[in-house]
Amino acid sequence: MASVLINVPERARRGEIIEIRTLVSHPMETGYRRSQLGAPIPRDIIRRFVCTYNGTEVFRAELHPAIAANPFIAFSTVATESGTLAFHWTGDSGFAVTESAAIVVE
Amino acid sequence: MARLDDSIRSLVRRVGAALGAIALAASVFAGEIPPADRRSGYEFMSRETRAMQDDDTANPGLLWVLEGAALWKGKTGAAGRACADCHGDARASMKGVAARHPAFDAARGRPVNLEQRINACRSDRQQAPPLAWESRELLALTAYVTRQSRGLPIEIAIDGRMQPFLDAGRAAFDRRQGQLNLACRQCHDDNWGRKLAGNIVPQAHPTGYPLYRLEWQGLGSLERRLRNCLVGIRAEPYEYGAPELVDLELYLMWRARGMSIEAPAVRP
Question: What is the per-residue pLDDT for B23?
Answer without folding.
Answer: 46
